[in-house]
Structure formats: C-alpha cells, structure tokens
Design brief:
Rossmann fold, N-(1-d-carboxylethyl)-l-norvaline Dehydrogenase, domain 2, 8 strands, globular, binds NADPH dihydro-nicotinamide-adenine-dinucleotide phosphate, binds 1,3-dihydroxyacetonephosphate, phospholipid biosynthesis, lipid biosynthesis, Glycerol-3-phosphate dehydrogenase [NAD(P)+]
Length: 309
C-alpha cells in the first residue's frame, strides 16, 4: 500500500496514476469524501481510499509527501511520530526559505535515505493518464530501485539517480527561471527574449547546482533541462503565469501555489553568501518581493556586461 500525503493537485494526480495499478491511500487535512478541489473534474480510481486521519494513512508502507515546499519542515516536525521509519518520497520542488535546505535534507531526521520525485509533469496530464517521465532520486540506490518499480506505471515512467542534490535543485531552480520567463512574455518582450532568458537561466541553474555538489548530467536531464522547458513554455504552469502577471503589471492569483517565489529568495541569499553570480534569480527575488519594479528588473538584465558565453 502506498500512502500519498497531501491532496492538492500533485498528490491527487499521483494517487490517480498509482491507483490505476495498485492500492493507494490518499490523505488530505481537509479531505471530504472523494472530492478533489485542486484537481477539478478528476476521479479517483476504486483502488484509492481517502482519509483525513493521518495515522490511518501512515499504516501504508511507502509515503509520498506532496505538500508545498515551505510547509514541509513544519509538517515533518509536527508529525514525526507518524512518519519516522517509513520510506519517504518528497514530491515538492523548492528550497526551504528558513534553512536553505532541500526537501530530502528537511526529511533527513525521519529516515536514513529519503527520496525525491521530480521532473516535468503537470498534475492534469498525470491524472489524465498521459505519458510522463520523472526522476526518482535516492542516495541509496537499492532503495531507489525498489521505489522506482513501486511508483512506475505504464504511463508514469520513473528514471533513477543517486544525485539527490542535482534532482532537487533542477526542480527548485526551474521554477525561478519560469517566473522570469513569464515576466518576459507578460512584458511583451517576445519569444526570442524568452529563449535567451531560458538559456542564460539554465547556465545559472547549472552554476548553482554544481557549487552545491550536483552532477551536471542530472541538470541536463528530466529534472533540470526537461522541467525548465515545460515550465517556461506552458500556460499550465503556475510559476509561469505568476511571472506573466508581474510582467503585465497585474496582480497574480494569491490562491495558487507558486514555489519559485520563495525559492528565489532562498537561492538569491545563498548565492550572495557564496559569491555565486545568479542575476536572474536575484531579479526574480527582488521583483517578487516588491523591492524593484518591472522596468528596473528588465533594465538590470539588459545592462549586464557583455562577456563570453
Ligand atoms: N501541480 C503540479 O502540476 C505539480 C506540482 N508539483 C509540486 O508538488 C508540490 C505540491 O504542489 P501542488 O499539489 O500542486 O499544490 P496545491 O496548491 O494544488 O496543493 C497543496 C496541498 O497541500 C496542502 N497543504 C498545504 N499546507 C499543508 C500543511 N501544513 N499540512 C497539510 N497539508 C497542507 C493543501 O491543503 P489544503 O487544500 O487543505 O490547503 C493542498 O491540498 C509543490 O512543491 C509543487 O511544485 C510537482 C509537479 C507537478
Ligand atoms: O512542476 C511543475 C511541472 O513540472 C508544475 O509547475 P507549476 O508549479 O509552475 O504549475
């Protein structure tokens, strides 16, 4: 039995995909019956049971944590008694603002080798059963292989790596660049400017990730290049839409989970402490926090010194 903790869009979509093949229990703190308010129109397969009782959900063996990144540390702390000892798979993309840690380090007190599931995948696509490829990263490759088989389905294909830092940072950093891509489109700067932004943004992602010990090939894979392409080019992305609203000078929808906004703050702070050049992340952090306006944000990027690619 697989337990999915968090009945938002991503948790619900994973429960649907996995529940087509095996027994799943889906927990949500406000879950009533089989309603999925964050994934309208989606229907849970019969093999998925639902609960608002965390103790009941934690009778499952493997637990998938599909919560927003900034909620993960508090959730892990508050519910350590239920979570400790289970194989844990973090399904969130971001960097914890308070500590600068990624999801696996946040869960490290609860299991010796938490895993992370990340990569290019919209919840709506997964729920519809469309083909999706994700990265499952676990430092313990034997556990990673077990999880890879447990969590793969014919439509949801998991690729495995032991590069946890690379997989985490690929998923976290692409959201920051997607906000910037949205700003470019919202401000009417055009598709050529977006391609330039994505390319320079990727260079920035790689620089940051390598400095944290990631492997370059991980960033070139699904969690990194793959997710960057998806999120910077699709209207389905909340990070992209958030940036597009900022670029167009309208208020973003406050009800949406936009992981890149807090992650940009964390990444800009870490980059400043370590002397890493991260101009796009710094711009997104300043713009999202209201420290600079749109014209200053664009000017900052366009006035960078000319240098070798
Ligand atoms: N949506 C997508 O397409 C994808 C999302 N992801 C990642 O999945 C993670 C979750 O995002 P997503 O599901 O989309 O977000 P949603 O906004 O759709 O849902 C978030 C869910 O988390 C619950 N939640 C928030 N805080 C807590 C808490 N403290 N305790 C318990 N439950 C809590 C919310 O519960 P409530 O409704 O009660 O507030 C809600 O059900 C993010 O890191 C995101 O980047 C990854 C790939 C695809
Ligand atoms: O991570 C995602 C796709 O891989 C979902 O992107 P958003 O959080 O921007 O909607």
């Amino acid at each position: 039995m697989i337990g999915v903790l968090g009945a938002g869009a991503f948790g619900a979509s994973l429960a649907i995909a996995l529940g087509r093949e095996r027994e799943v229990i889906l927990w949500g703190r406000n879950l009533t019956g089989r309603d999925l308010p964050r994934l309208p129109g989606a229907v849970l397969p019969a093999r998925v049971t639902t609960t608002a009782d965390l103790a009941e959900a934690c009778r499952a063996d493997t637990l998938l944590l599909a919560l927003p990144m900034q909620q993960l540390a508090g959730f892990a702390r508050d519910h350590a008694a239920h979570l400790t000892g289970h194989p844990l798979v973090a399904c969130c993309k971001g960097v914890d603002l308070a500590t600068g840690l990624g999801p696996v380090e946040v869960l490290a007190a609860l299991h010796s080798h938490p895993a992370v599931l990340t990569g290019p995948s919209f919840a709506a696509d997964i729920a519809r059963g469309l083909p999706t490829a994700l990265t499952l990263a676990c430092a313990d490759d034997r556990l990673g292989e077990t999880l890879q088989h447990q969590l793969s389905t014919p439509a949801l294909r998991l690729y495995r790596t032991t590069d946890v830092i690379g997989a985490e940072l690929g998923g976290a950093l692409k959201n920051v660049i997607a906000i910037a891509a949205g700003v470019v489109i919202g401000a009417g700067l055009g598709d050529s400017a977006r391609a330039a932004l994505m390319t320079r943004g990727y260079a920035e992602m790689l620089r940051f990730a390598l400095a944290q010990g990631a492997r370059g090939e991980t960033l070139a894979g699904l969690s990194g290049f793959g997710d960057l392409v998806l999120t910077c080019t699709s209207d389905l992305s909340r990070n992209f839409r958030f940036g597009r609203a900022l670029g167009a000078g309208v208020s973003p929808d406050p009800a949406q989970t936009v992981e890149g906004a807090a992650t940009a703050q964390a990444v800009a702070r870490i980059a400043a402490e370590r002397g890493l050049d991260m101009p796009v992340a710094a711009m997104v952090a300043a713009l999202a926090a209201g420290r600079i306006g749109l014209s200053q944000a664009i000017q900052t990027l366009l006035s960078r010194p000319l240098k070798q690619e």
